[in-house]
Write a structure and sequence with these properties.
The chain has 198 residues and is α+β, with helices and mostly antiparallel strands. The protein has helices at 32-35, 66-76, 83-92, 95-103, 107-111, 118-128, 135-139, 146-160, 165-178, 184-197, and strands spanning 4-13, 16-21, 24-29, 44-54, 57-63.
């Protein structure tokens, strides 16, 4: 089983790359969070790999970080979620945001990911809420800042109220830029006023 690849990037298209190792080109499916930071063709890449074997198909799924790899394997352990859907989840939300959404059981945030319906979102939240990786140890970086938490909570509240994600994010950014230290309720009222003004 292939667990790690280090080689030269030969081709890249969103969601799919080819890595040449020792003269052999490996096709690897990757989430967009791994894809976008990759360099141009010819650059060196190092990926953690999940080898998926099914009947006569062997597919490689690659990840830039241990956290992405960990979340992927936890997702595919859920009944009804295969590798392609798990990859779609990781492509549709940053790993830290995914962990936060699962902890909060934020179905609205999870269903905002393309391909994830309400039942699947509920299943992800239910099955993973007590089995999430420890972010600080896994990533070797600090937890999200209070502003990140506030932004995430505001977005969740607006989506639950029926607002679209893109305009909601724009309004939140504008309000937080003007008053970054306000509390949740005060900020939410300002965002709602901004949304109503259009």
């Amino acid at each position: 089983m292939i667990a790690r690849l280090r080689g030269a990037l030969v081709e890249k298209t969103p969601g799919r790359i080819i890595v040449e190792v020792g003269g052999v080109g490996y096709e690897v499916q990757v989430p967009l969070t791994t894809f976008y930071p990759l360099g141009d063709a010819g650059s060196d890449v190092v990926l953690r790999v999940h080898t998926h074997v099914r009947e006569d198909v062997i597919a490689l799924y690659g990840f830039a970080t241990p956290l992405e790899h960990d979340l992927f394997e936890r997702l595919i352990a859920i009944n009804g979620i295969g590798p392609k859907l798990a990859l779609a989840v990781l492509s549709g939300i940053e790993p830290l945001d995914l962990i936060a959404a699962i902890r909060r059981q934020d179905v609205a945030r999870l269903t905002a990911i393309p391909g994830i319906g309400r039942k699947t979102a509920e299943r992800i939240g239910l099955e993973l809420k007590d089995r999430l990786p420890v972010v600080v140890e896994t990533m070797g970086r600090a937890e999200p800042s209070p502003e990140d938490h506030l932004r995430s909570d505001l977005l969740s509240a607006l989506i639950n109220l029926g607002y679209q994600r893109a305009p909601a994010e724009k309004a939140i950014d504008k309000v937080l830029e003007d008053a970054p230290d306000a509390g949740f309720e005060q900020t939410l009222r300002k965002v709602l006023k901004a949304m109503m003004r259009g």
